[in-house]
Amino acid sequence: MRPDVLLIDLHLGDMSGIELTEQAKAIYPDAKMVLLTYEADESFVSAAFRSGASGYILKEADSEELLFGLRKVVQGRRFICTGITERLCTRLSRDSRAVKRPISIGLSSREAEILELIADGYTNLQIAGMLFTSRRTVEGHRLSLLNKTGTRNSPELIKFAMLNGLLNVAAG
């Protein structure tokens, strides 16, 4: 037998559908593998496609969507059912709202310099010594940064600055 399509349940008795997909792909490299499951978690979807699957369909999908997906897979396309794509779109739109585009809030060059030093973990006194100014001047700049960004403390300030492109974050 040379199957064109194998419809595989994700949860089997002795092994997972992911493992079966990998083994079946080794035996039938031209066959298309479609996982059928109740699991909507992205980690399962990702693992399925990494194992060689061409499709991922939830058992809650109606028969029309199942047949549509199988046809697409037979045509050489990949298919993810609408139940999964809706969840992915919701997550992606939520994530895109969390990461804002860089904004300009009118930081002075001294405020930008102090922001970088705050992010590096220096105290007001340490920053004052590094910049040859008073601790009170640094405190004033820190307060100005908090006011301009609408944050309440240094961790919030750093998070805001990172999400809004106000900090140049380098590894190491």
What does it look like?
The chain is an alpha/beta fold. α5 crosses α7 and α6 (124-131) packs across α7. Helix content is 54%, strand content 10%. It has 2 domains: 5-98, Response regulator (Rossmann fold), CATH 3.40.50; 109-163, Orthogonal Bundle (Arc Repressor Mutant, subunit A).
Can you give keywords for this protein?
Arc Repressor Mutant, subunit A; 10% strand; 4-stranded parallel β-sheet; 172 residues; Rossmann fold
Number of helices: 8
Question: Describe the biggest sheet?
Answer: 4 strands, parallel
CATH A-level architecture of the largest domain? 3-Layer(aba) Sandwich
Q: At the first level of CATH, what is the class of the largest domain?
A: Alpha Beta
Order of helices and strands: EHEHEHEHHHHH
Strand content: 5-15%
**CATH topology annotation of the largest domain:** Rossmann fold
Quaternary arrangement of the chains shown?
A: single chain
Question: What's the overall average pLDDT, rounded?
Answer: 86
Q: Portion of residues in helices? A: 40-55%
Rg over CA atoms, rounded to whole Å, is 26 Å
According to DSSP, the number of beta strands is 4
Order of neighbouring strands in the sheet with most strands: 1-2-3-4
Question: Topology of this structure?
Answer:
Layout (H helix, E strand, L loop, with lengths): L4 E5 L7 H11 L4 E6 L4 H9 L4 E4 L4 H12 L4 E2 L1 H17 L10 H11 L4 H8 L3 H15 L4 H10 L9
Parallel strand pairs: 1-2, 2-3, 3-4
Helix pairs in contact: 5-7, 6-7
